[in-house]
Amino acid sequence: MESIAEFLKWVFTYIFYPGLIVGIFLFVVATVVVLYHKTDNMRIILAATLPIIALIFVVIQDGTEQSLRVFLEETPEWMHVIAGIVLGVSVIELGNHVSKTFMPVPVALYCLYLSVIGVFILYCIMTTAIQSIHTLLFVLVISGGFHAIFRGIPGMSESLE
User: Fold this and answer.
1) Distance between CA atoms of 95 and 114, rounded to whole angstroms?
2) How confident is the model at residue 145, as a pLDDT?
């Protein structure tokens, strides 16, 4: 029985958890692609790539790549919970608002927001600070999921037609 428990722990730790991180990135990329194809707005591409360009300068500036890790480790756990709730709810709520209007500037700002979240997670992976934000990611996924259940998934029809 212990070998099954160890195997399941290994699967969840080394397959499902990295899969969740990749899934968050795929969500960000897919949302940007869908919004671009629905609007043909080049601002979306610029907004999505701007945080990636900024990340290059952040990586070069922070040679030891430890400042973020130290900050995240020293931040109280309750602040990670609040940040996760705010991020999870805001991603869904802003997405619902943007998907109703498809106006160029709000759509581009939403893509910028999603890209900043994706770049933050990428930088946490690069600096091995990802272990410091487990709670934030957990609450982000759970609160965003529950909010999507009650408010709907941005840009998706409620029917299966």
Assistant:
1) 10
2) 86
